[in-house]
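ok trying this again, last paste got cut off
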Amino acid sequence: MTLIAELEGAESGDGSYNKGFAKLEASLTLHMREEEEIFYPALMEYEEFSDLLSYSIPDHELVKEQLAQMGELEPASELFQEILSELKGALEAHVDNEEDDLFPEASEVLGNAKMEELGREIENMKSESGMSQTAGM
């Protein structure tokens, strides 16, 4: 989570932290779009994903709220740093859930061909956005 690490302990008066937050926000927003517009709809066709998605979708809403709060603050502020810490924990839990449960089950249920198709769609979305990676994770 290099973008988050760059913001941790931000000091006042350095505008580079604002640019760092903008990168983090854009990266996370793209990542959530990829999942919400491409990956999750493919999974919603299968009942076995209802429990897993019931955690993932609210995770995104929390991240969106945290990013909105952070966007109103200076990165060096105590409140920004507190929310950043909460965001980091939420993202780590979300990633663990995806890597441990969601992705393995999706690969098993959807099969390699469908997973590769979804991967290409996600890569196309990244290319169209001008970003080669998401969230720096």
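PB: full thing came through this time. The first helix runs from residue 2 to 7.
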